[in-house]
Amino acid sequence: MIDLSQAGRGLDGYALLSAQLQALLAGERDFISNAAQFSAFIFHELTDLNWAGFYFARGEELVLGPFQGKVACVRIPFGRGVCGTAAASRQTQRVEDVHAFAGHIACDSASRSELVVPLIHDGRLIGVLDLDSPIAARFSEADQTGIETLAQIFLAASDC
User: Fold this and answer.
1) Closest C-alpha among 143, 70, 82, 86 to residue 120
2) Could you tell me if residue 44 is left (phi over 0), alpha (psi between -120 and 50 degrees) or otherwise beta?
3) In 3-state terms, what secondary structure has residue 14?
């Protein structure tokens, strides 16, 4: 497991994770298989996560995809909660305290912070990558940049 919380190690750690993810997904184009591998990879490689996975865009809502962690909400309308806000705005949401986020959906009451990256391919919203942590303010700017890069690696390796 890589502890990216130490000062100065964040981006170097993500460079290593990027190389590992590229190798993991090499030779496989199936979107669901790659999503399953990616969610397991990120869940086990980053510290202090209690959920890592995907929600896929279906109409005007997100539907649960491959993930690691406790059971989760199955459907989230666009614009609702952190994931729905990321989907509607098409902008990454980095939330230090989910309990202070208006309209937060508490799928797991142990979650304190969240990072949600929209997955956009050829201008089309595919879904979101959602990371939850039981630690408040778990995700830094370096985490956001690193996870956004990993999401792009996943999209480039997969048939969307």
Assistant:
1) 86
2) alpha
3) helix
DSSP at 50: S
Instruction: Give bridge partners of residue 130 from the DSSP assignment.
Output: 53, 116
Residue 11 parent element (H or E):
helix 10-25
- Closest to 116 measured CA to CA, from 142, 151, 65: 151
Per-residue pLDDT of the chain (160 residues; tens, 9 = 90+): 555 544 344 568 999 999 999 999 999 999 999 999 999 999 999 999 999 999 999 999 999 999 999 999 999 999 999 999 999 999 999 999 998 887 777 676 788 999 999 999 999 999 999 999 999 999 999 999 999 999 999 999 999 9
Please, which residues have CB within 8 angstroms of residue 8's CB and are 6 or more apart in sequence? none
Helix axes 31-45, 10-25, angle to 10 degrees: 150
Measured CA to CA in angstroms, residue 62 lies from 1, 13, 81, 125, 143 at distances of: 29, 30, 11, 10, 23
**What pLDDT does 8 receive?**
40
Q: Domains in the chain and their CATH numbers?
A: 10-157 (3.30.450.40)
